[in-house]
């Protein structure tokens, strides 16, 4: 049978600027510290090509802060700045013929984003200007009636070695590799099985990641060794809408060893409900419980892997994002509301009560503070969007204590505000 070659080539871009006022974002500032103000910019150019039994995608990305280079420099030479880079470069081979309409089986290889469910554990981290991607192979089996089975594999090396596979897993620059501030995995295997429901989906995840073994020398520097420590995370996710109540629930268990070689047994429990009062307004609440602490030599601190914490634990990124906060875990009680009077405008607000999941040595207190977030989004056109937000963190003495954020003479009232302009053109190819 002859197949007609109908190639599709699309070219799109993005220019996203974000001006931020930071007065305690990520962690409280000392009382004598001054607030920060800057503008960061992400520029992307994406090319996608589809033809018979193959898809191909490339995304070039530049991330920088306005003014980080003097006007006579045309190339960023400091690795910490993470400026011009290749964000995605992948090809997807359709292993089943495209004339088979009820199922697909494909292999996607190369640098790619991985995004599953609500992105709590595996997500593209789009809020961060540089985002997150993986160098991996992804096998995908999907059926027309909503079943899907994905398996991913990755094996990292620092260079083309002549011998051996020892991997220096310390990430370059100022950015941590995992959501919880950990080092980069040496290898990773993932199994994801899901079923699309009428108004939601249910899924099962098993993810194993391995980290290079190491020991510390007399200067406390890492000396990497042959072999790995293996960590395993497994659990289920569910979301669906019943009448006017949108529900979400998930439960995950983590075991094996941490990236530092410590025995691990931890868990995450999450549940929420939103009531749809109308097409314009919904409100509700929920709770997220990330276990923490330790028992003897066993850690009970859950690591939310490679997710998007900005969506969950407060927009000021105090937890699982900008800076560490000890090993006590987190309990997050929250209420959320969203008002959308038109297709072009929406307003959302969140209120959080944060507490340590485990007891912290030297105190019987667990409250880490409260946070209020407010975000407005306006779409001028399909390709031009404006977003503004403000957040305030009401800290406690515990959040600044040595075993949590470790800030001396901290200002416990913190603020953060931003204005973001997102332009995403789609170029016409003739």
UniProtKB/TrEMBL annotation:
This is Alginate export domain-containing protein. Residues 8-394 form the Alginate export domain. It comes from Panacibacter ginsenosidivorans. It holds the Pfam family Alginate_exp. It comes from the Bacteria.
């Amino acid at each position: 049978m002859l197949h007609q070659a109908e190639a599709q080539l699309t070219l799109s871009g993005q220019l996203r600027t974000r001006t931020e006022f930071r007065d305690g974002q990520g962690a409280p500032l000392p009382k004598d510290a001054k607030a920060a103000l800057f503008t960061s910019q992400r520029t992307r150019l994406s090319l996608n090509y589809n033809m018979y039994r193959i898809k191909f995608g490339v995304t070039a990305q530049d991330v920088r802060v306005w003014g980080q280079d003097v006007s006579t420099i045309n190339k960023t030479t400091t690795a910490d700045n993470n400026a011009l880079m290749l964000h995605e470069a992948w090809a997807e081979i359709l292993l089943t013929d495209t004339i088979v309409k009820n199922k697909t089986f494909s292999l996607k290889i190369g640098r790619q984003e991985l995004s599953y469910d609500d992105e709590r554990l595996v997500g593209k981290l789009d809020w961060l200007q540089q985002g997150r991607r993986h160098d991996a192979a992804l096998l995908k089996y999907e059926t027309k009636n909503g079943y899907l089975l994905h398996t991913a594999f990755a094996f990292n090396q620092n260079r083309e070695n002549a011998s051996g596979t020892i991997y220096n897993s310390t990430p370059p620059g100022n950015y941590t590799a995992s959501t919880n501030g950990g080092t980069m995995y040496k290898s990773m295997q993932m199994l994801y099985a899901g079923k699309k429901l009428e108004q939601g989906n249910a899924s099962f995840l098993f993810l194993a990641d391995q980290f290079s073994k190491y020991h510390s020398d007399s200067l406390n520097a890492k000396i990497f060794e042959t072999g790995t420590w293996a960590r395993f995370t497994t659990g289920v996710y569910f979301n669906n809408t019943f009448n006017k109540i949108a529900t979400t629930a998930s439960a995950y268990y983590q075991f094996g060893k941490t990236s530092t070689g410590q025995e691990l047994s931890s868990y995450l429990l999450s549940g929420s409900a939103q009531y749809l009062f109308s097409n314009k307004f919904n409100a509700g609440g929920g709770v997220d419980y990330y276990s923490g602490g330790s028992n003897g030599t066993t850690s009970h601190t859950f690591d939310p892997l490679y997710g998007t914490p900005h969506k969950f634990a407060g927009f000021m990124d105090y937890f699982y994002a900008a800076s560490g906060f000890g090993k006590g875990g987190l309990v997050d009680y929250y209420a959320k509301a969203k008002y959308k009077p038109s297709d072009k405008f929406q307003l959302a607000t969140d209120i959080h009560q944060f507490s340590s999941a485990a007891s912290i040595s030297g105190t019987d207190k667990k409250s880490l503070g409260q946070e209020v977030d407010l975000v407005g989004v306006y779409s001028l056109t399909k390709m031009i969007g404006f977003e503004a937000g403000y957040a305030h963190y009401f800290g406690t003495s515990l959040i600044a204590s040595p075993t949590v954020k470790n800030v001396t003479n901290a200002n416990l009232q913190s603020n953060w505000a931003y204005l973001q302009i997102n332009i995403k053109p789609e170029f016409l190819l003739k």
